[in-house]
Write a structure and sequence with these properties.
Layout lengths: L1 H16 L5 E3 L3 E3 L5 E9 L3 E5 L5 E3 L3 E2 L3 E7 L8 E10 L4 E10 L5 E3 L3 E4 L4 E9 L3 E5 L5 E3 L2 E2 L11 E6 L8 E11 L2 E11 L3 E4 L2 E7 L5 E3 L19 E2 L2 E2 L2 E4 L3 H7 L2 E3 H4 L23 E2 L3 H10 L15 E4 L8 E4 L9 E9 L4 E8 L4 E8 L7 E3 L4 E2 L3
Parallel strand pairs: 2-9, 11-18
Antiparallel strand pairs: 1-3, 3-7, 4-6, 4-8, 5-7, 8-9, 10-12, 12-16, 13-15, 13-17, 14-16, 17-18, 19-20, 20-21, 22-25, 23-24, 25-32, 26-33, 27-28, 27-32, 29-30, 30-31
């Protein structure tokens, strides 16, 4: 009898050891807020078990192994990224011949965010229609601090997958004519359960300007209705030796002396002085001088040397050129004065401190066999069209400041 009982116990023990492993959990998936939180997972198994996780960097797990039933607490840290998190936790019961497992998924959305694909953007004064994108995980609204800028759409919802091009906005910026650059700010705001998130796109629209060489010159629509460059040109091609009496370009004069002012800041403020052969970019003779009216010369593409008629119209429309924004700048002038000077030129640099009364600008209309018309502006900003600018081939060659006027559209 004893022997029979022993055999029965052995069979029962063997049956227990060969029992299929099983594991159970009370839930298979749960979602945690991006701000973090905790979840309890009830586990049971008929063999020793352990908890495995593919990424526990943001998790704090109360128990990683055990035998029999247990309640495991999983704490999830806040998600500070812009990507959703999915944590896969697997409970494995290790049987004698095989394992049993159950997987539990914790989903956590990305942190509440909203942003433009750019933070700064530059636009020319002529305006532009540009596209930007807004990315985020909550509905958003856009406002703009410039009333003349058109933004479409002003609202969006990342969850609206059926909306074509959701997140793409179009910004239409028109021509801007003020003398200084402006900033246009677009604000995108998203209201979330935990507060407000926002981002800003700053668009800088340049003041009207034109590029000559490596420098941008401000331009302005004057009272005559035409666009003028409002700074004296200071462009010289590479390799030019300014003031050597051969290239036809001179430095401006100093404020209180009739001599060259070669300081970089002075040149940029006053501009250079040009002979007519440089202004028109051609050799000036008795024949060629009569063919330069309205020519481009060294002005940029789309611009030209002013004609007498254009200077006349400017003076008539703006009795005070200084107040109108033409910004006349006293740079002196260069005039031939006989022997003893390189190429017959010397400085005659008049300044306000020495009774300066006028500054001169080249015109493309020829007056006589030796003279060009030009614009003379006095210290009070009054302009007068004169015919006293001598050509380079004459006995009294002349070098003066230069402004350009934009071609009629």
């Amino acid at each position: 009898m004893k022997r029979i009982l022993i055999i029965l116990f052995a069979v029962a023990a063997l049956a227990a050891c060969s029992e299929e492993p099983t594991v159970s959990i009370d839930k298979e998936a749960v979602e945690i807020a991006y701000t973090g939180g905790s979840v309890d997972l009830n586990v049971d198994a008929n063999y020793p078990w352990e908890l495995l996780c593919d990424d526990d960097s943001l998790l704090k797990i109360s128990q990683l192994n055990g035998e029999g039933p247990a309640t495991i607490q999983v704490k999830v840290a806040p998600n500070t990224s812009e990507k959703d998190n999915n944590f896969y936790l697997t409970v494995v019961a290790h049987g004698t011949e095989r394992d049993a497992l159950k997987t539990f998924v914790i989903s956590q959305p990305a942190s509440a965010y909203i942003k433009f694909n750019k933070s700064i953007y530059m636009v020319e004064y002529t305006g532009e229609e540009a596209s930007f994108t807004v990315s985020g995980n909550n509905p958003w609204t856009i406002t703009c601090d410039a009333t003349d800028v058109e933004v479409k759409p002003l609202t969006g919802d990342p969850a609206a997958e059926d909306v074509k091009d959701n997140g793409v906005i179009s910004v239409k910026i028109g021509e801007y004519l003020e003398p200084t650059a402006r900033e246009i700010n677009l604000y995108v705001v998203s209201n979330t359960d935990d507060g407000i998130v926002r981002d800003t796109l700053t668009i800088t629209q340049k003041a009207p300007s034109v590029t000559i060489g490596a420098r941008e010159y401000p331009i302005r629509r004057m009272p005559d209705g035409r666009w003028w460059i409002t700074e004296n040109l200071c462009y010289a091609a590479k390799g030019i030796v300014i003031g050597d009496g051969k290239c036809g370009i001179w430095y401006p004069s100093k404020n209180d002396a009739a001599e060259a002012d070669s300081e970089t800041e002075s040149i940029q403020a006053k501009g250079l002085l040009y002979s007519d052969q440089v202004v028109f970019d051609t050799q000036i003779t008795k024949t060629t001088c009569k063919k330069q009216e309205g020519k481009k010369g060294i002005c940029p593409d789309g611009w030209h040397i002013p004609t007498k008629a254009e200077f006349d119209a400017l003076v008539a429309a703006a009795p005070d050129l200084k107040a109108a924004g033409f910004n006349p700048t006293q740079a002196g002038y260069v005039q031939g004065s006989g022997a003893g000077y390189a190429n017959g030129f010397s400085y005659k640099g008049y300044t306000s401190g020495k009774g300066l009364t006028s500054t001169y600008y080249f015109c493309s209309t020829y007056s006589t066999t030796t003279q060009w018309y030009g614009l003379q502006i006095d210290a009070n900003g009054k302009g007068t069209v004169v015919n006293t600018l001598y050509n380079y081939a004459s006995a009294r060659p002349f070098a003066a400041s230069l402004r350009c006027i934009r071609n009629e559209e």
